Amino acid sequence: QLKETVRKFRWLLEEKEMTLEMDLEEVRFTGDPAFLEKVWENLLSNALKYTEIGGAIEVVLTEQPDHVTVLIQDNGIGIDEEGLERIFDRFYRADDSRTQETGGTGLGLSIVMQVVKLHGGTINAVSRKGQGTTFTVMFPKL
Ligand code: ATP
Ligand code: MG
Predict the structure, then answer these.
(1) Which of 28, 84, 87, 129 has the greatest number of beta carbons closer than 10 A?
(2) Positive or negative CA dihedral for 101, 88, 33, 55?
(3) Rounded to whole angstroms, how far apart are CA atoms 102 and 109?
(4) What is the pTM of this model?
(5) 112 alpha carbon to ligand 1 midpoint, in Å?
(6) Which among 27, 60, 56, 23 has a CA at the least distance from the CA of 132?
(7) What integer pLDDT is reported at residue 34 of this predicted model?
(8) DSSP one-letter string for 102-134
(9) Cα three-residue angle 7-46-100, rounded to 5 degrees
(10) Is the ipTM of this complex over 0.90?
(11) With a 6 A CB cut-off, is 73 part of the ligand 1 pocket?
């Protein structure tokens, strides 16, 4: 499922001369496939949008006894502290994203948050301006 979404992003990555490091084992957990696809789509498209040409994105999937963890990391423009508090808000877009030519509504992450919550999971973001961003999503294995 996540693998398929990542595959769809391959050609976009090549266009931006990015490398995508991926370490996906086969991991299964219960959830709504259509909604979960939205999560991967949003997180991957963000990583792509907010990372310069030639950047690197890494996706790491790990499995623990009672939950799975998905880490999506980029070395893009990053988010400052103030922005980090607001990225999950509806319609919020950081200044440097708005001034860039990249489009977007600012809804992506608020949808991601809703879907993650509906699955009983958690998501958090760690970022450094100018250095990159890491999203960690955790889903319980129901
Ligand atoms: P949409 O997803 O609706 O197309 P969007 O990508 O702007 O629009 P969100 O996905 O909700 O909206 O993200 C909100 C804001 O968080 C973005 O506008 C951007 O400022 C910041 N952001 C999100 N992901 C990253 C990232 N990987 N690197 C840097 N900034 C990010
Ligand atoms: Mg987005």
Answers:
(1) 87
(2) positive
(3) 16
(4) 0.88
(5) 11
(6) 56
(7) 81
(8) ----S-HHHHHHHHHHHTT-EEEEEEETTTEEE
(9) 130
(10) yes
(11) no
Secondary structure class of 69 (helix, strand, coil):
strand
Tokens for 83, please give them.
Answer: 């922005």
Quote the pLDDT of residue 11. 61
Task: State whether the beta carbon of 42 lies less than 6 angstroms from ligand 1.
Answer: yes
Cβ atoms of 59 and 27 closer than 8 Å? no
DSSP-assigned states of every residue in 31-64? S-HHHHHHHHHHHHHHHHHTS-TT-EEEEEEEE-
pLDDT at 6 over 70: no
Contact (CB, 8 A) for 50 and 74? yes
Rounded Cα gap, residues 4 and 8, in angstroms:
6
Instruction: Note the pLDDT tens digit of each residue in 92-109.
Output: 998 766 666 677 888 999
Nearest residue (by CA) to ligand 1, atom 5, is 106
pLDDT at 134 over 70: yes
Please identify every residue whose CB atom is under 5 Å from ligand 2, which is an ion.
42, 46, 108
pLDDT reported for residue 135: 97
